[in-house]
C-alpha cells in the first residue's frame, strides 16, 4: 500500500483526531506552537493546494525542514529564513510534523480542504517520521551554494538571478535598500563578479570559493 493510500485509510481513534474547517485547524496549530517547540518537518507535493497546511505560522527560531516537489515562489522566503530545503519530484501527501510528536496531514490527500488529521499515536507518528526521513534522504538541494554564504546572502542572490532590482530585493526581504546594496557590493568584490547578474550566475548552483586575494 502506498503512503498516500495508507493515510487515506486512517480512521478516527486514539491518537488520531479529525479537524474540520480552516479556522479549527489554524486555531489548533496556534495552540500546538504556543509552547516551546524545536523542529518542524514540512512536506508539500506539487499537487497540494495552499490552504490549511504549509502556510501555518511557526516561531522563527524553530528549525524547519521543507521538502517540496518543485521550486516555487516561496523558495526565497525559505532561503532567507535559513530553512533546510530540498526537492523531490514525487511526494505522497502534504504534511507538517511538529517535534516528531504531532503530525497534521489532510484527511483526503486528493482534497486538502476536506479536513486534517491530527496524529499523536506514537507508532503512527514514528512511521510518518521514518517516511519523511527516507524521502528527505532521496531529495536534492535546489541550489548548491558555496560554503560561507549567510541565509540573507543566499536570498539576495536568488532574487538577483530573477532580475530583481536592489529596491525589489529590499522590499521582498523586509530590509533597507542600503543594506541590500552593501551586501551585493561585498559579494561582487568577494567573488570577482563583473555585475549583479554575473554574481547570481557565479553563485546560484555553483561550488565556488572566493578568489585568492592578490598581494
Can you walk me through this structure?
It comes from Catenulispora yoronensis. InterPro entries: Sig_transdc_resp-reg_C-effctor (IPR016032), Tscrpt_reg_LuxR_C (IPR000792), WH-like_DNA-bd_sf (IPR036388). This is HTH luxR-type domain-containing protein. With about 220 residues, the protein is an alpha/beta fold. It is built from 8 helices and 7 strands. Strands 1-7-6-5-2-3-4 form a 7-stranded mixed sheet. Strand 3 (about 65-70), helix 3 and strand 4 form a beta-alpha-beta unit. Helix 6 (about 165-175) crosses helix 7 (about 175-190). The radius of gyration is 20 Å and the shape is elongated. The protein starts with a helix and ends in a 12-residue tail after the last helix. The model is unreliable at about 205-215 (pLDDT under 50).
Order of helices and strands: HEHEEHEEEEHHHHH
Please give the share of residues in helix: 25-40%
Describe the main β-sheet briefly: 7 strands, mixed
The chain-level mean pLDDT equals 79
Helices and strands in order, then pairings?
Elements: H1 3-8, E1 16-19, H2 22-32, E2 39-44, E3 63-68, H3 75-80, E4 84-87, E5 95-98, E6 102-106, E7 116-119, H4 122-138, H5 151-161, H6 166-173, H7 177-191, H8 196-203
What structural keywords apply?
alpha/beta; 7-stranded mixed beta sheet; 8 helices; 38% helix; transcription regulation; transcription; WH-like_DNA-bd_sf; DNA-binding
Could you give a quick summary of the protein structure above?
This protein has 215 residues and is an alpha/beta fold. It has 8 helices and 7 strands, in the order H-E-H-E-E-H-E-E-E-E-H-H-H-H-H.
Amino acid at each position: 500500500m502506498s503512503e498516500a493510500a495508507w493515510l487515506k485509510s486512517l480512521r478516527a481513534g486514539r491518537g488520531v483526531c479529525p479537524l474540520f474547517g480552516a479556522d479549527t485547524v489554524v486555531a489548533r496549530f496556534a495552540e500546538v506552537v504556543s509552547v516551546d517547540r524545536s523542529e518542524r518537518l514540512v512536506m508539500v507535493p506539487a499537487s497540494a493546494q495552499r490552504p490549511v497546511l504549509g502556510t501555518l505560522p511557526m516561531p522563527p527560531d524553530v528549525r524547519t525542514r521543507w521538502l517540496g516537489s518543485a521550486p516555487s515562489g516561496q523558495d526565497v522566503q525559505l532561503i532567507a529564513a535559513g530553512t533546510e530545503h530540498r526537492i523531490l519530484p514525487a511526494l505522497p501527501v502534504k504534511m507538517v510534523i511538529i517535534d516528531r510528536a504531532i503530525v497534521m496531514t489532510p484527511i483526503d490527500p486528493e482534497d486538502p480542504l476536506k479536513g486534517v488529521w491530527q496524529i499523536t499515536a506514537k507508532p503512527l507518528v514514528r512511521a510518518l517520521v521514518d517516511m519523511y526521513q527516507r524521502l528527505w534522504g532521496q531529495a536534492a538541494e535546489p541550489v548548491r551554494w558555496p560554503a560561507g554564504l549567510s541565509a540573507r546572502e543566499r536570498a539576495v542572490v536568488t532574487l538577483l538571478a530573477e532580475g530583481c532590482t536592489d529596491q525589489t530585493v529590499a522590499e521582498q526581504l523586509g530590509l533597507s535598500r542600503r543594506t541590500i546594496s552593501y551586501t551585493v557590493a561585498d559579494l561582487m568584490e568577494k567573488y570577482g563578479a563583473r555585475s549583479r547578474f554575473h554574481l547570481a550566475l557565479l553563485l546560484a548552483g555553483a561550488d565556488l570559493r572566493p578568489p585568492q586575494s592578490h598581494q
